[in-house]
Design goal:
The structure is a homodimer of 139-residue chains. Chain A is of the alpha+beta class and 139 residues long. Helices cover 24% and strands 40% of the residues of chain A. The first copy, chain A, contains 3 helices and 6 strands; from the N terminus they run H-H-E-E-H-E-E-E-E. Chain A has a 6-stranded mixed β-sheet. The C terminus of chain A is likely disordered. The interface between A and B is medium-sized, with 34 and 34 residues.
Chain lengths: 139, 139
Amino acid sequence: MTPPPFDSADQAELAFYRAFEANDLDAMMAVWDDADDIVCIHPMGPALNGRSAVIDSWREILSGGVAMRFSLEMVQIYNADNLSIHLLNEHIDVASGNRVAPMAATNIFRLGAHGWRMVSHHASPNPGTHSGKANPQLH
Amino acid sequence: MTPPPFDSADQAELAFYRAFEANDLDAMMAVWDDADDIVCIHPMGPALNGRSAVIDSWREILSGGVAMRFSLEMVQIYNADNLSIHLLNEHIDVASGNRVAPMAATNIFRLGAHGWRMVSHHASPNPGTHSGKANPQLH
């Protein structure tokens, strides 16, 4: 996994999903911006605002130890001077061999003094997107 | 309702929810960017990519004629030179007098030749956020 600092939003995003797959809280929080304006919206969850709330949520999720593998299907990217927004479908395999319903995600990255880091992750269930429909690939 | 062009992302966002409340497809699509890189993720829905798919979805939703009123609880805003991203909770009242489960939304606006317009709307159910919890207000 690419260690921080990340030279691009793509690098930060890849590290985010690798940390998720590895259930590695330290690696996960290294992806997130240190500022307190970060927001995370887990599937069917509230908007968690601030670093403390976001850390707590990932500690709980990653401590579950579920082994997941993500295949990312990029839908659209918007770039500005210091922001990069990625809209994508997450296709998820779990260790049991089952594929769970895909998620739609909006990931927002910001360029700061410590490179590109995540400031927002909004994921929601997307049962209508079938895996393989749009040739998903890990980026 | 403020007519386009919109001088700010806030104006465009207000017009978006007013069009939604009025079930006005023309007003709704005046809020959206004319470019074909727009994306809309309705609650529990797929990532609709491109103007045609987005228009079709709003035609279907708004033709239902459900009278809804939105109260917006802003969570966080990220600004760049030509992009503005708003994360918020949508508290929704319907004409029957009932309040439906709130939605978490990520709205993305872009500044172009025709002012600020929406390029992405990602909404997802957020049953954990109770109305009134954070003093929601229409902005």
